[in-house]
Design a protein that fits this description.
mainly beta; eight-stranded antiparallel β-sheet; six-stranded antiparallel β-sheet; 10% helix; globular; disordered N terminus
Length: 207
């Protein structure tokens, strides 16, 4: 698990959460809505803030799953470990992204071609005791630009208009904004819906 996590951090460290030449944002896992009766069925639930290789990451854990999240400017990277005694499935057609404005949309994950992003996606299976490293990207943020210098593009998760002459004033409008991921997991043919909420904690001006 640690080896997979460090590989993931190394991969995303090249992608800063930036929406301007000198501005970045930090995003944290602020809340998790676990399935009903989670404490009875899944044991104690907790969100853990970690410092790994100098980067702040967040982990959610209960008796069934252990999931680490790293958010970049365009996607959600995660490593999920199956702690249960059964295989679990991630039904990708049922995973959803909820934007800062509350709009719900489909997502794509690793291995899906951009052109196939709106097609049905087979579920991922994680055997008991195993881990899966993957990504989540809103399909509405993927688009094609025609022309000589065109091609596929990935839109940013947060694209806030910041007045660089009044950064301190304008950034207060966006700190606290949230996005959510509806993340169902199937265990023994029962769909268990998790909702992971991510919040903009700060907007930083790089020197």
């Amino acid at each position: 698990m640690k080896k997979i996590l460090l590989s993931l951090i190394a991969a995303v460290s090249m992608t800063s959460c930036a929406f301007g030449p000198y501005l970045t944002y930090s995003v944290g896992l602020s809340n998790v809505e676990a399935p009903a009766d989670a404490k009875t069925q899944y044991g104690e639930t907790k969100i853990i803030k970690l410092d790994v290789e100098g980067k702040t990451n967040y982990k959610y854990e209960d008796d069934y799953i252990d999931i680490m999240w790293i958010v970049t400017s365009t996607q959600f990277n995660f490593v999920i470990k199956n702690k249960s005694d059964y295989s679990i499935k991630i039904p990708w057609d049922d995973v959803a992204y909820i934007s800062p404005s509350g709009q719900t949309g489909r997502v794509m994950h690793s291995g899906v071609k951009y052109i196939d992003r709106n097609n049905s996606q087979p579920a991922s299976v994680v055997p008991k005791g195993a881990s899966l490293s993957d990504i989540i990207m809103p399909t509405d943020n993927v688009y094609y630009v025609s022309g000589q210098y065109g091609g596929w593009r990935e839109g940013k998760l947060f694209n806030f208009p910041i007045d660089k002459k009044n950064i301190e004033e304008s950034k207060q409008l966006f700190i606290g904004k949230t996005v959510r991921i509806l993340f169902p997991i199937i265990i023994q043919d029962v769909k268990n819906e998790y909702v992971f909420e991510f919040k903009v904690e700060d907007i930083i001006q790089k020197k």
